[in-house]
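To: structure desk
From: M.T.
Subject: fold request, one chain
Message: Could you run this one when you get a chance? Sequence is below, nothing fancy, just the single chain.
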Amino acid sequence: LDEQLALLQRRGMTVQHLAAARHHLLHHHYYRLQAYWLPDEIPAAVAGDHAFRRGTTFEAGVDRYAFDRKLRLLVMDAIEKFEVSLRSRWAYVLYIRHGTHAYLNPGLFRKTGEHQKCLARIENEIQRSPETFVAHYRNTYAEPAMPPVWAACELMSLGQLSLWFRNLAGSADRAEIAAPYGLDEQLIQSLAHHLTYVRNVCAHHSRLWNRELTISFRLPAHPQWLKEAFNAERPKRVYNTLVMLAYVLDCIRPGHLWKSAIHALLNDHPKIDLPAMGFKPDWSEFALWGGR
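Reply: Done. Structure tokens follow.
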């Protein structure tokens, strides 16, 4: 640890509190923290080595690390609410329009092969699930072997749900599922796919705050007040994800405090580089965030 700190200092980093720095390296390790001081490095072509800009501190990297962790927790919280809501809509619409075991009917889906793969995943989940409702169904009903749609959906990950939604053949079904969000069904499908990727980033405790997100989503063209809140010039940064999550949470849980938590997090870490996250300079002035 002392050699790592000496290396950082030799490259131009100031370590203000050596004991605390050793503690962070011990529990978070050098390679993980390295991602959070990369923005302070001078390009190798200029420095000839991994040198740091004047004024770079170890503590600034730790602050980014702490910020990123809190951000991931907030994002995971919002994605969970969207996932549960979308599951509920998917199950409700299929049941109302097509019956208790609608998801077993291959005629309701575009691609038979993809439907069979999705069904096989559900069957596998049922076989290994310790959930009480699964055991109750097995012990109570001999046929059909698979539970009703409102129970089956509880065994789906967001990624699997996204595939089930995408494969629905009836555009009217998809539109009905998407209706409470005030967005077209193709955009909801795109969002579900994007949030599956973002959720995986968060679940693996990977860096999120300034990541270039490889899977983006379609930005809505309306309503205008929502469209203007997005940063169309930085579509693969996390700011657009935050805008979309704020919007769907408004639909799911009016009066929620998630947006206030985002404001509080940014206020607690005033040195975070917001443009690196894709934030627009006047982001807080938009109606979505409580501005005009």
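Reply (cont.): The two ends are 50 Å apart (CA to CA). Let me know if you need anything else for the meeting.
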